[in-house]
Amino acid sequence: MESFAELPVEEKFKIVSGFLLESPPGEVNEVYNDLKVLMGDEEEFERGIKPALQQHNNEQYIVATLPEKNNKVIVSKYGQIGEIEDDLYLDPRSQQTFKFEHVRHTVTDVQPYPVDSAIEPLRAAIDTAIIEYVTDHYPNGVSSVYSTDDNSTLSITIVDNKYNPHNLWNGRWRSTWVISPESNELKGTIKVNVHYFEDGNVQLNASKEIEITASPNSEEPADKAKAYAKSISNAEDEFQGSLNESYIDLSENTFKGLRRALPLTRHKLDWDKILNYKIGQELANKAT
């Protein structure tokens, strides 16, 4: 079997790109730096890894901050303008475009991008309603609402990150909702990723696809937006509740069925003490 160093460059980038795309929440920089050392050639690595880094940032809803208004916007395919190589994104809230540097997460070349769309009043109303919902339910949540070119659908993206590396865990919540205003149908995808790495490496990846229909009181943008936000809130509350129930069941039933909570002695094993006994025994054997 060939070693990593002997592989063709294309095969190397295929491998390291896979590692990068599977980076746990908040840890992509550490993975990126380790992969750079593994590849050796820094300039070649930065050129070759860029497509995977762009894909990662788009899929993981990395948050960009526009400098002048300090406005936060989610980097995703929904706000992408032109080809992915252009690194050009839209902030529909401030009606501006910007270039996003995917390695350092910096924003440059901010330009006005006036929106002339019949669906803009509804998009803006939904944006306001979702901001209120996210503020109430997510400690560090960010949201963006986009309309399509043909005005047939609107897309809502929500992300909240909780990074706690000092306590050895990081987590991310992402949800996406695509709305058809004519039918008031919402199609959503919720994804939760948590990485716990105290004395081990445990990852939680949970996701759910949801289809619901909202019932607005009227066709007014504010009424429709309020109904959409309420439907999203109910669906996400239900998903979070089901997660909580699942982990209670895992703790109380599933894990107990896999192994004993304590050995037969009913006392936890002190592995450090056992190691010291073993070292002491080895020294005693050498002395004799």
From TrEMBL:
Highest taxon, organism lineage: Eukaryota
Molecular-function GO terms, alphabetical: actin filament binding
Pfam families according to UniProt: F-actin_cap_A
Keyword field: Actin capping, Actin-binding
InterPro entries: CapZ_alpha, CapZ_alpha/beta, CapZ_alpha/beta_2, CapZ_alpha_1, F-actin_cap_asu_CS
Gene Ontology biological-process entries: actin cytoskeleton organization; barbed-end actin filament capping
Annotated Gene3D superfamilies: F-actin capping protein, alpha subunit (3.30.1140.60), F-actin capping protein, beta subunit (3.90.1150.210)
GO cellular component: cortical cytoskeleton; F-actin capping protein complex
Family, per entry: Belongs to the F-actin-capping protein alpha subunit family.
Subunit structure, interactors included: Heterodimer of an alpha and a beta subunit.
Function field: F-actin-capping proteins bind in a Ca(2+)-independent manner to the fast growing ends of actin filaments (barbed end) thereby blocking the exchange of subunits at these ends. Unlike other capping proteins (such as gelsolin and severin), these proteins do not sever actin filaments.
Name of the protein in its database record: F-actin-capping protein subunit alpha
Species for this entry: Diversispora epigaea
